[in-house]
Amino acid sequence: MDFDFSGPQPLFVQVADQLRAGIASGALPEGEQVPSTTEISRTYTINPATVLKGMTMLVDEGLLEKRRGLGMFVVPGAMERLRREERERFERDCVTDLVAEARRLGIGCQELIGLIEKGYRQ
Amino acid sequence: MGDRGLLRGVGIRGDGPARRTRRIAWMRERRWIAMGVVVAVVALVLDMLLAGVGHLLGGIVAPDHDMLYWLCSFTLATSAVASWSMFRFLICQGVSRRTIVTTQFAGNACIAAAVGAVLTVVAVVDIVVIRVPAWQIFVGRAEMIARYPYTLSWNPRYLSDEFGRTAVPMPRINWLVLTLAVFAFLMMAAMIGQTLGELAARLQVRGVLAALAVAFVVALLYGRLVPSGIRDTVDRLLAFMMGVYQRGVGMGRESAYSLWPLLGSMVVVSLLCGTASWLLIRRREVRPGIEAMA
Amino acid sequence: MSLSVTALTKQYGGSTALNRLSVTFEPNVIYGLFGRNGAGKSTLLGCIGNRLIPDTGRIVLDGEPLAECERLMARVYLANERLPWWDGVTLSAMLADCAHMDGRFDLGLARELVARFGLSPDAVYGRLSLGQRTMARMLIGLCMPVDYLFLDEPTTGLDPVNRRLMVEAVLEAYRRRSRTIVIATHEIAEFADILERAVIIDQGRRIDSFEVQDLCSHAALLVGPSDVVRAYAAGRGLRVLDVEHRGDSVSALVGMVSASEPEGGASASVAASSGFITGGLPDGVRARTPDLQTYMTRLVQRRH
Description:
The complex is a heterotrimer. By secondary structure, chain B is mainly α.
């Protein structure tokens, strides 16, 4: 699992986002342990407290669970939930924005569907 | 994430932090004690060699100089340099100023005792192995005290008292008295040296040079600046501190020797110098310095 | 259970180095201590390390005064530009000295760091370069078995590669032995990722202290027309900390007026991710979170 912490957001948010992406993509399988705070801290030269803060965010969201003495594990069903949430977010944000942008440019509904179909063919 | 609890201060050797700082202070102090003893012994050996060679060559080198002056000077210098230079290392390693002062105090006593013992051994060897007349005077004043028959009394008899009896220096030295007398002299020198070292650290280089210049000028002009009556009193007082009772003036001056004023002076000087050193070190700091030199 | 400094004052001759400075260092946290040259960082650390005598104020460790108390001072170590040993000492001699003085000195880590920094154990300290001497002093500090470690300018004279190594070394030492490490440095960007909290000192006073990860809810940069930005800040009760003029528009650094907890503590993490400027920006005004270096630099500039 390779992380990329070069974004402008606070580091702990990036940690959470990267872990979330890993869970959604399946790179961090359900029921398995995620890399420990020590590992991530050492590999990416980040304060362990920051890593823990990001993981705690995911614990609060119910995506990770802490097993005493063992570490952080991906909650079963997390991947499915994340994918569902991302679909909802896609629909809520991207689709709405797309339609608004299309309206602004004067593209009608049928024309938009045609453009989307063309996009899928490529 | 590691243990977030408080760590107990127990070392591998099982001792706590306070003993650690005393151990650090003693590590450093031992070096200075060794240096002080080595310097004194080297000075002694050189001086004896010089006197011995001079004697062998027919008395070229005048024998009646006071070796004790040199020993005291070297001890004072070693002690001053020690108190001036030890401070920074010890403070940086977490030793308190109180421990620094008291450790050096103890170190001064060790140097004085060690050199006193060495001198006694040398004297014994000198008498047992080979008698070189020039070497008899190598401890000057201390030897006078050690040879005086009434040294241990509070009111020693003068060389010729009112009843016409005379007291003559003994042919044999009282070794205990010699060791104690040398110890007293060197202890005072070391304590004064410690205070001077603290003072030098306080004054910085410019202040030290200024103080030295003033001292030099005062020493030169002492005879002219101070009236003879006061000078006389000062002389008597200094002599008393060194265990020499004096009466009479000029050619009629007589001396009597005793150990107790000397030991008493040692205690008083040690207390005064110890207090002065403590007061000076209390405000002594290791200022942020220029990186490059330690 | 912490190291707290209360109303510390120190004057050098006519100038005031510390002006009733108060700060608290909690256990097992990595702090960044920032301030301009002459702000008082080194003086503060010198007082904590019992090297300087403050005029007034107290330094207390776990409830007891720290100065001159050897039992407590054994739990604190300051690594700055002064080397406690004589110049002619070799690295291996220094390490042996440290191990002898305290059996818990991490000799293994020390040797590892010596190798990692490319230093030779038999090198004489006085003959090393400026950067090498810094590395030697700092790695000794990192291996000291203390609860509160203070590093004063750990990257003096270091090239970029060694600066990176130093950052990693600090984190490595922290992982091996969890303790408070306070790093007084100008290399803010390089150390930012390993810091948990930051303390900013200016003219002998602490002007800010905060969690580095909460910077997004602590301050923001507003860019836009001067009057619009100022009105918005005034309307929202935001304190304007520094203003840069760029033609007609300004870049204003604003901060929360009070230091109290943002509302909704449980969801503060969510709010934090989007910054505390949660919508409602007037036209022409953009907001973003400053990075740590920008925040610190502009905070002490205080231009209006």
